[in-house]
Every structure is written in C-alpha cells, then in structure tokens.
Amino acid sequence: MALKSSIEWTDATWNPVRGCTKISPGCKHCYAETFAERFRGVPGHPYEQGFDLRLVPEKLNEPLRWRSPKRIFVNSMSDLFQEGVPTKYIAAVGRVMQHANWHTYQVLTKRHERMRELLSDKLNWLSRIPHVWFGVSVEDREYGLPRIDSLRKTPARMRFLSIEPLLGNLGQINLAGINWVIVGGESGHGARLMREAWVMGILRQCREYDVPFFFKQWGGVRKHEKGRLLHGRTYDEAPTIRGERSAHSLAI
Ligand code: SF4
Prior knowledge:
Layout: E1 12-14, E2 17-18, H1 31-37, E3 54-55, H2 62-65, E4 71-74, H3 87-99, E5 104-109, H4 112-120, H5 124-127, E6 132-137, H6 141-152, E7 159-163, E8 180-184, H7 196-209, E9 213-217, H8 223-226
Parallel strand pairs: 1-4, 4-5, 5-6, 6-7, 7-8, 8-9
Antiparallel strand pairs: 2-3
The site of iron/sulfur cluster (SF4) has 10 residues, from helix 1.
C-alpha cells in the first residue's frame, strides 16, 4: 500500500486485505475506519467500499517489487486473522512473506485465538520464519492480558505487543516470551487520556524482563503538540532484524 509509512515503528505498510470490524474498546476510534469511510462511494478509489472487508489479491506481490529491505507492517488497514479472511488467503500472504525474505514483516492482530490456532496447526510453517514477527494489540487489562497470554502460547520466532491506545493501568503483566513492546496513546478527535504512571509501569516491567521498549507517542487531539518524549528522551528500542536486542541505554 505505502512504500513509506508515518508509523514510527515501521518503514512501510502492505495491505493485501482492506476493511475490518470492531471487536474491543481499542477499536472505538479506529484510524483505518475513519480513513476508509471518507472515501466510501468514491468511484475507483481503493476505499470505494469504505471499511467493508475485501481481499485485494492484486496487492499480494507488492513486497516482491520492493527491492531494498524494509520493516513492513502487514495490514495496517485491516486484521489478517479476522474470520472473513479465508485460511487459503492467509497462506498466500504467508508465502509472499516467505519468498520476499529480505524484508521483516510485522503482523499485528486482535484476533489472537485464530492466529494461535493457525500457527499451531495448518500454518505452522509460517511460525518458523524468522523474518515474520507476530504481535497482538493491547489496550487494557480485560482484553489485553488474555491476548498476551495467548501470544505467549503461539508458536512464533518473534512476538511483540502494540500497547496502543493504552486506555488504563495494565498493572502487573507477564512479559515472558515477549520480544518487543510498543506503547502509545490515542490520537485524533475524542482521544482518550493516557497517564504517565501507566507508561512508566510498563517501562519498568520491560526493564525487569529485559524487553526492548518503544514509546510511540503521547497522542491527544493534536498529537504533534504532545510529542513522544518520556522523561525528556525518546525510547526507540527494537529487536534487530535477526531478533537480537538492539543497543540502548537501560536508564529509566
Ligand atoms: S481490529 Fe484494528 S483495524 Fe480492526 S476495527 Fe479494530 S482497530 Fe480497526
């Protein structure tokens, strides 16, 4: 979809699926829905059908044409593991990721049950590819903690959490088996508040578990005003492409 992405933790986005349905409080102000619905009914526009679920097979081979290595966020405008996406199609997406192995793929979902089921069984081959990372979105304790537990039990070479929008205090979280944590607040119209203490609680636990921590943004109605400094500095830690931890300061 986009050779360049403005999302801080990736380089490019790839959307072989478009559209989704809401399943938890983190979806309330879904940016993908807001964007897609703006173009509903515009003839010939990629989002002519708004945020309705559609497979986009003509986009499948896009990463094969991108010659320089990139971190690619898979389905930034959808959720690959939603019910309406056939297993055969998820396998086709997987085969492209397997083939175009000079990239690193970041597959993020809220449908942790289906991801776990497929990677444990029919699509187990996909779980063994080192340059394909699997993550779940986390917004609060009620919905987020079961997703983290499920991800931990999902076969994958690299597991990550996108804790955005962070809507409440997560308290104690088990980060065993998790390789990367991204945290961010909600942005845009009606953005819900994220408290500093909640972020610091997650950072502290990342330090305890030795997990790289990436602070994406404070968010808010005008997110550029609030920026992405936490205690006067940025946190851009990430695993390296081969899964080692990148060099960073451990000072909080
Ligand atoms: S799962 Fe993601 S893409 Fe789907 S509605 Fe929720 S926030 Fe939007």
